[in-house]
Amino acid sequence: MKSLFLHGKQVRIEEIPLPTPGGEPRIALRLAGICRTDLELAKGYMGYDGTLGHEFVGTLLDTTGALSAGMRVVGEINCGCGNCNWCHSGLERHCPNRTVLGISGRPGCFAEQLTLPEKNLVPVPDSIPDERAVFAEPLAAVLEIFEQVLVRPMDSMAIIGDGKLGLLAAMVFAQRHTGPVLLIGHHPSKWKSIPEMRCLHENEIGNDLVAQFDMVIEASGTVAGLVCAQRIVRPRGTIVLKSTVERSEPLNLAVSVVNEVTIVGSRCGRLPAAIRFLERTDLPVERLIEATYPLDQAEEAWKHACRAGTLKICLKTKESA
Ligand SMILES: [Zn+2]
Ligand SMILES: [Zn+2]
């Protein structure tokens, strides 16, 4: 089968064997999304080599437990060992021996077929089309913020970064947060996808915004973004770090010490919560798709996704037709 494969820092289409039946349930890919993390992996983040991809919706090929072949599913990407304290407490996402779909120790979803443990699979209701379901994984990552920190109804929020995750976070907060929300970015053309949101260019952050926000979500993945977050968060406020990036640069955290800022790292969330959110709201996540390529043009799709300022690039298979 065809897969989009990472060798060192080279990304190319490669023929690989189909997963063997009889092991973990097999899933035929329908639609997959290329994410910032994939681009970071290709720069060396995690030292991963193999089939890329972790955002997908597919068709289950094997009947397993309560799930029958033919169902559409999304999947939790972290696979715990099942034996450690983290796994026993339901936090497989933090299992030290975990494998992660397309990120660590497990082939990803940019292929005709993939496999995941049965307990990782979440059925997709008919009311959610593939173009929305494919956002379940990044949406779960945004909803994770509400599990980790207390967001009070009138908190003033800022989201830094108008990349794919920043825009998705802005959409979610526009929908469910009553207090003021500001998106800070540098691609005004992208702000059209969230017309209800107040947006500002990074260069326009003046002194009037210093120490004004109860919570700042850093989704730009840059040191400049973090410096900005420290500047605009109020004393005793919270900064939520959402980006995983390959490079590291020195950063002065003294201002956060002085201002007693809480800094929270935030990664993946729960897929069932994301699917329920998509089912119960009309969150227009599909607006974030810029282009969809067939899997056999995955190299072109990859090049497109690498261009600065690109929204979500998707890969589809005949299965989705
Ligand atoms: Zn991702
Ligand atoms: Zn474990």
Describe this protein's structure.
This protein has 321 residues and is α/β, with parallel strands linked by helices. Strands 3, 5, 6, 9, 10, 17 and 18 form a seven-stranded mixed β-sheet that branches. It has a six-stranded parallel β-sheet with strand order 13-12-11-14-15-16, with helices on both faces. It has a three-stranded antiparallel β-sheet with strand order 2-1-4, covered by helices on one side. The radius of gyration is 20 Å and the shape is globular. The chain folds into two domains: 2-123 and 284-320, Quinone Oxidoreductase, Chain A, domain 1; 141-265, Rossmann fold, CATH 3.40.50.720. 23% of the residues lie in helices and 27% in strands. Helix 4 crosses helix 5 (164-176) and helix 4 (136-148) packs across helix 8. It has nine helices and 18 strands. The structure holds zinc ion (ZN) (2 copies). One zinc ion (ZN) is lined by residues 35, 37, 54-55, 137-138.
CATH topology of the largest domain: Quinone Oxidoreductase, Chain A, domain 1
The CATH architecture of the largest domain comes to Alpha-Beta Complex
User: Which percent range fits the helix content?
Assistant: 10-25%
> What CATH first level of the largest domain would be assigned?
Alpha Beta
Rounded to the nearest angstrom, the distance between the terminal CA atoms is: 18 Å
Name of the CATH superfamily of the largest domain? Medium-chain alcohol dehydrogenases, catalytic domain
Beta-strand segment tally: 18
Our Rg estimate from Cα atoms comes to 20 Å
What would you call the structural class? alpha/beta
Strand content: 25-35%
Number of contiguous helices: 9
Order of SSEs, N→C?
Answer: EEEHEEEEHEEEHHEHEEEHEHEHEHE
Instruction: Please tell me what the overall shape is.
Output: globular
